[in-house]
Fold each of these.
Amino acid sequence: MTEKELKYHIPALFGESIGGLNVKPSGCYVDATFGGGGHSCGILEKLGAGGRLYGFDQDADAERNIPDDGRFTFVRSNFRYLSNFMRYYGEREIDGLIADLGVSSHHLDDESRGFSFRFDGALDMRMNSRGGQTAADVLNSYPEERLADVFYLYGELRNSRRIARAVVEARNRKPLLTTAALLAVLTPFAGREKTRKFLAQVFQSLRIEVNGEMQALRELLLQSPGLLAPGGRLVVITYHSLEDRLVKNFMKTGNFDGLSVRDFYGNMHSPLRMTGKAVMPSEGETGDNPRARSAKLRIAEKRRAEEEM
């Protein structure tokens, strides 16, 4: 892993995720969340001269990390458009797909992006800073009921309605444009012992809404079975229960509700087969990289024709 990549982001479960891809030297792979390029570099180290790797990222900052390697193609786009770009590049199937869904260290440490409550800056939170609504747009334009839904569904906050009401009352006096302005509204709702967790949940909910993260994840997962070659691997690292629930259910049953669909003979109709239980970071890794504490790695394999019988 390069020094440049370490400065941008320290990937959680790096060795386990690259190993889970089971990289073939001549295979075709996709890094759906390129970021600092850590996973891509790990894949390139295992690829041979005939291998190919595509890295997706909608953040302009990630382009600084593009490796000088003829086997690598950078795709400036959200991974929800995976199938479209694979068709564009003439790839009928891929041998592996990896997605590290966590917000990067780079984003959290850049006070101008508004992802962290540690700094006072503009309430932006866009992964793609070239367009789209910001967190300030959400806070200042959404109706109270819709704001409450965002806080409840994506932050899992039980007092979501009270928080939404306070936001609306505050913005009626003055638009909420900075993290400091938002924190002033949130402080009365934060308990003494769990303040950081509460603030993290609120900021998480806004980030997910701004970037449409849950819908993008659903679209990525739905596309993956049709793109993966038989035996191909899907590797996903999640950081909160909302993501992990979707990934686990889809890998196990082929749908997001986790409902087992079986044929007359009792065979499950799922295009993927989970390779084992979720992998968690070791104590040593979380000591070096505290942001890895909530990481969870899941791996699935595209079923082969004989398994679908």
Note: The mean pLDDT is 91.
Amino acid sequence: MISSKEAPKCQMLSVHQEIVDQVNEEMPDEDVLFDLAELFKVFGDSTRIKILYVLFQSEMCVCDIAQLLNMTQSAISHQLQVLKKSKLVKYRREGKSVIYALSDNHVRTILDQGMEHVGE
């Protein structure tokens, strides 16, 4: 860890205003950045990551996910609610069963990129 005495100091005389202005123009609104941060918080729970990975492989009902992850249906249902709220999973009814799946290919891409990154 670098102490404050060792940290490089930014000299106001060396600010590259053109670059700062250009980047500032491209910065998303605070609300958008907040929503993005909230989305990434959802990925901060290993149970939710397991559920997403399971659904990456196949659509499943709560019972199947609970069996596969050795967890209660209640615990899985709770996490699926969080994932649905974040628009990461979708569901459909098949008779009395509710089948869950990843919402779209964006979720697959996020998981793929994450796995690639941790594998480096």
Note: The chain has six helices and three strands.
